[in-house]
Amino acid sequence: MSSPGSTPFKAGKRHPFLLQQRVQEMTFWPCILLLLLCGGLLAWNPPELRTSRGSLSIILLGTAGILTLTSLFRLRAFARCRPDGLLLQFPLKSFLIPYAEILQTRPTELVRMFPPHQWPFAQGHFLAPISQATMVVIEMERLPLSTFQMRLWVSRYMICPDATGLALPVRDWLPFRAELDELRLRRPQAKHST
Fold first, then answer.
1. Are 125 and 158 contained in the same domain?
2. Which of 98, 86, 103, 93 is nearest to 168 (CA)?
3. For a pLDDT cut of 70, what percent of the chain falls above it?
4. Which of 20, 82, 99, 154 is most exposed, with the fewest beta carbons within 10 Å of its own?
5. Is residue 87 situated within a structural domain?
6. In this structure, are residues 66 and 34 in contact, taking their beta carbons and an 8 Å threshold?
7. Is residue 160, in this structure, part of any structural domain at all?
8. 94: left (phi over 0), alpha (psi -120 to 50) or beta
């Protein structure tokens, strides 16, 4: 029960994950260009391409699907402080971590946690623009699932290599961490207050 005069906490602000934003940023313009090209060719309908209308239609629909999915995944990937714990929403899975299970939080940069020489060649272009981004490391006694299972739902760049926990790359990391730490410290006091 909260102390007299204190306002009950409602769900905090959504803090989108930078990795999902980066995926959408990388796919957005190529998808738009493909949509315009295929749509333009289908509308123009030159005689030379009449036999390719089926292929153009499949490319158009596939590209529209990719654009829609990456946009939805970006919207569905965030961290949010709630009264009952920290909600980690990933595109296809969510985890609610009770504040009591969080041992500590600390900031670090993605490039410090995952040095560039460890990046696979194909991921260098993807990670470079966000390599200096600050991540909020959430250290816990145990992960919500085994490391193998977590890798099915979460990017490997969000699983701490040097501790048991998750590294959350969010744009407004400072207010997010402040809100999270405040709630972590408030929870035990709330249990004992009458």
1. yes
2. 86
3. 91
4. 82
5. no
6. no
7. yes
8. beta
